[in-house]
Amino acid sequence: MASQSRSVRARRPRAWAGLVAAALLATGLAACGTESGPPTLSWYINPDSGGQAEIAGRCTAATQGRYRIETTLLPREASAQREQLVRRLAANDSSIDLMSLDPPFIPEFAEAGFLAEIPEDVATEVTDGVVESAVQGSTWEGRVVTVPFWANTQLLWYRKSVAQAAGLDLSGPVTWDQLIEAATAQNTTIAAQGIRAEALTVLVNAVVASAGGTIVLTPDAPPDEVELGIDDARGRRAAEVIQNIANSAAAGPALNTRNEDASATLFEQGAAAFMVNWPFVFPRGQGAVEDGTLTQSALDDYGWALYPAVDAGTPSAPPYGGINLGIGAFSEHPDLALEAAQCIVSAENQAYYFVTNGNPAALESVYDDQEVVQAFPMASTIRESLRRAAPRPQTPYYNEVSSTIQRTWHPLGSVNPATTPARTADIIRAVLRKEDLL
Question: Are residues 58 and 112 both part of a single domain?
Fold first, then answer.
């Protein structure tokens, strides 16, 4: 979940600035339009609880006046963030020095030439001690093209009392089928995200990966040669699991319009005793206790475990998310932007961001920080989940892949192992070959 406003003015593109300078010169006021002082770097950020703006201030102070970092707020939805950045970068916008990127969009940005190169020595430094899923998510065609910042993953959350009543042992791996059986027996539900949005792609990819499958087999192939794995036996097994969830009494209300927040609400209210969701649900629960909308005993009943497995004996592959830092290819200060990125992702700043904004660190060492452990008692489980996590399809055509999945796997009750994976693959191929439109 790469999901408060901290917005400042964006620097204007050079072409626009040139027109303004010319007009000022014509009126004898050119000197007033000349920028003086240290450079200002613009960091385009996703919405959060103010943590990135605070880190920008910290790293600005650390420069001792050599340059400043200002944040510019992107839209809340990841797809809208991508759209705004792509439009600007396609126009060679030099105002983008740093950008907070959702990992699935990184191959597209790298292929388009939107990302400045990261030197090999810096790449080694910024990936040292980083969880493997975040390293994979920052890499394209064997090169580190972005700087890992924070790394998100989903856990299986459960009510301890209900799991105990169901006789479900969550000290070790459990399968989706076991969860469905336990929830049905206890007359409760499993809160999963079935809304036709990126959350659905996250669910489908995690179940396919947990079945041992891969949606895109040849991520760097030309569009008309891309090979897909979503329609093989493992993709069909994933469709079977999702079909079982959707058609069971454990699906609960409004599965097909439920996002992460709606799932968290069901869990808080006790209408769902099991849930797959990002770690934000724990500080959210703490806030609900402070507000008086959740009892402390209910929060104390929260349990957590690794993401559900598809088959017993086969480890699950939890979702991977988070944010990486890209350096704008058209930045006028790429060296300073790279230096700023290294400051932003320091262990100190990652620990601060984890504790204050609830966004897990990419650095493994942060999970041993005492403030982190105190704020997130499940920190070690999050770290283990990230070690096992599988990124969503890394391909320059991710938008086409994700949009197709949202089209063909929704509503979840319509998923059919015999037809849904094959239809998904057919549409993706047709779209990439320009034979069909989404």
Answer: yes
The SS3 assignment for 221 reads coil
- Reported as a single tens digit per residue, the pLDDT across 355-398 is 999 999 999 999 999 999 999 999 999 999 999 999 999 999 99
Q: Could you list the residue range(s) of the whole structural domain that residue 414 is in?
A: 153-318+394-432
Residue 170: exposed, middle, or buried by beta-carbon count in 10 A (0-12, 13-18, 19+)? buried
3-state SS of the chain: helix, strand, coil percent to 5?
50, 15, 35
Q: Confirm whether 379 is domain-assigned.
A: yes
Structure tokens at 41: 């770097």
Domain shared by 119 and 172, yes or no: no
Given a contact cutoff of 8 angstroms between Cβ atoms, the answer to whether 11 and 71 are in contact is no
Angle CA 361–366–372, to nearest 5: 90
For the chain, the domain total comes to 2
Q: Are residues 252 and 128 in the same domain?
A: no
Q: Which of 85, 115, 92, 99 is nearest to 41 (CA)?
A: 99
HSE, CB side, 13 Å, CA atoms: give it for residue 338.
19
Tell me the C-alpha distance between 119 and 165, whole Å. 55
CA distances from 124 to 129, 133, 135, 342 (A): 10, 15, 10, 12
Predicted local confidence at residue 438, as pLDDT:
82
Q: Provide the token pair at 182.
A: 């336990």
Residues 46 and 167 in one domain: no
Q: Give domain status of residue 421, yes or no.
A: yes
pTM assigned to the model:
0.90
